[in-house]
Amino acid sequence: MPERKRKAVGLPAIGARCGSDRSATLKHKLMLGVIGAMLGASLQGCTAGKAPSEGETSLANAAKDVAIPLEAGKMKNPLPDTEEVASQGQEVFLGSCAQCHGPEARGDTNIGRNMAPPAMDLTSAHVQHWSDAELFWIIQNGVRLTGMPAWKSSISENDTWKLTRYIHNLPRLDAASASTAGPSQTRTVTSAQDKYTLKVPNGLAFAEFRGYEGWPVIALSHNGNAVAAILGNPVMIEAYKSGIPGNGKPFPDGAKMAKVHWTAKVDVGEPGAPTVPGPQHDVDFMVKDSKRFADSGGWGYGVFEYDAASGQFRLGNLTDKPPQANDAKCGFTCHTKVKTKDYVFTDYGRR
């Protein structure tokens, strides 16, 4: 199906209203035609239990085209087209969209493939021909009769504009990746990015802590059958070095901590048979954002359990020990014990 035209045909001023009505009428007719074609295809034996044909997918994509109001194309992206904005859009994408569209935005996930129609490859020409404004409308409002939900209540307008910048930068990012990475490197990146699709409902996304593995160590701990390393981002480390929280000041917004737990094991092969890390158990996150988490002491919490057999993380839940609720306040009750230390248990280890 050819791409629909986006620019209005020039008309005399006196006929502007008439032209608008005709455009709307034409759009309604196109929508009815697409729906009719889809219904006709379903009557010929198309079911949700089998992969849609190329024709069905094309019809579903055409339905997305027709669903976008003409007025949506008049909006302008208020954010600059820069690498920084696109990078921020990628963080939003990994936290909210990658579960269906995949970390590389190609729709290559179990959830995405099993949708009817399948989740779209955002690098495709069909998606790339949409303007920022049209993508903004789709993300905010969703598309009926497809798996694309409305994100208006979950993703802010500002973050949605960042998303559109990121989506339109995907072809360039793909080209850069292909020119610098061999096949084995590509597989490694894809595997490492799986965890960045996780997000606590109404809370933290794993993607907010990208690079935590290389953060400086704040301290180590050994509690029962677990050993842990507590890590801090540069903002957190600088706050500790300035005397926080011992000087009575709170940690600044942007301070982040990660606590990696391993199952403890005794290594009899080393002198003194020390207790050392065994298989990884989970990773806990904290971030200071006094506005976003005003009702939990200014801190957001998240727990992501690790399954060593599959090499995958998952959200903590009430069956875990200790039980973990899936919300932004996870851990807050426990941390109120150290409210006078701005809810932080760990002291910075002298070195």
From TrEMBL:
InterPro entries: Cyt_c-like_dom (IPR009056), Cyt_c-like_dom_sf (IPR036909), Cytochrome_P460 (IPR032033), Cytochrome_P460_sp (IPR038142). PROSITE patterns: CYTC. The keyword Iron applies. Residues 84-171 form the Cytochrome c domain. Gene3D superfamilies: Cytochrome c-like domain, Cytochrome P460. GO terms for molecular function: electron transfer activity; heme binding; metal ion binding. This is Mono/diheme cytochrome c family protein. Keywords: Heme, Iron, Metal-binding.
